[in-house]
Amino acid sequence: MINRLAVTVIWVKDQNEALHFYTEKLGFEIRADVTKGDYRWISVGAKNQPDFEIGLSALKPSMALTEDEVQVLTKLVESGKLGHCVWKTDDCQKAYEAMTAKGVEFMQPPQARPYGTIEAIFKDTSGNIMVLSQDKR
Amino acid sequence: MYYNKQIQLARRLLDQRYATAITIEQLSHEVALSPYYLIRLFHRIYKQTPHQYLIRVRITKAKDLLINSNLSITEICADVGFESLGSFSTLFRKIVGISPSAYRHSSQTIRQSVYIPLCTCLLHGISDTLEP
Which of B57, B65, B86, B120 is the most exposed place for a label (fewest CB within 10 A)? Predict the structure, then answer.
């Protein structure tokens, strides 16, 4: 049987820019940084969740992606139609303030949701939409 | 290609002597090609110039030392062959995305083993062997 989710992958327009965002603005740790030829596999994860990582896969023409596919995917990523994630926090307002101070741009400040959470929404440097979510205390 | 062996030798020499101040003139002399021809052929095979390759080797070694040693950033800079801390930091940030100190700080839990998920290997046509 499946035990848990260990790795997921999101597309990013620029891996260096994304690494800077996830480590220095969100405070994530680097879990892997491997280069094989032209390909760089880099993954990051939240400090409190060592058994889960998110791969930052570069949107660039390669063996995997044609230029046309890169263009299509880039448009979808930029418009927030790919790569949604929900990140849990103990204090949404506090995290929102700390992240805003570091330059993270929010689409929506913390708001109480009808299903019992407080949630804010931000985008990463590529356009992937991320939800910052706090469970009701 | 006729000069394949010489280009491969040039790459091996860069892998071995990355910590020294090796010049393109020295390298081209050792592989018996003109600097111009060496750069051109090296780029044709490896999609980067010998200098770009050397910088990447140095940065890769620096990343390893940042994760696996207690050496200071200044010591690492010198150990991998950079003469200036400024240029080391600038190139590190340009190639890796964050500064050497931020990389060390953020990589406390980085895996020591080389692991790329199989789905990613299949998608990008890369081998899942341990060699870089």
Answer: B86
Between chains, do B107 and A30 touch, taking CB under 8 Å as contact? yes
Domain membership of residue A74 as a residue range: 7-135
- Rg of chain A over Cα atoms, rounded to whole angstroms, equals 16
In a domain, A1, yes or no: no
Q: Does the structure's ipTM exceed the value 0.85?
A: no
CA-nearest residue to B112 within chain A is A32
- Domain range enclosing B31: 1-47
Regions of chain A with pLDDT less than 50: none
Closest CA to A53 of A77, A69, A76, A29: A29
Q: Which of B63, B123, B126 is nearest to B95 (CA)?
A: B63
**Is A109 a domain residue?**
yes
- Give Rg (Cα) of chain B: 17
Query: Could you say which of A24, A50, A55 has the minimum Cβ distance to residue B109?
Result: A50
Any CB–CB contact under 8 A between A29 and chain B? yes
Segment A24-45, tens digit of pLDDT? 999 999 999 988 878 899 999 9
Question: Least CB-CB distance to A38: which of B47, B108, B123?
Answer: B47
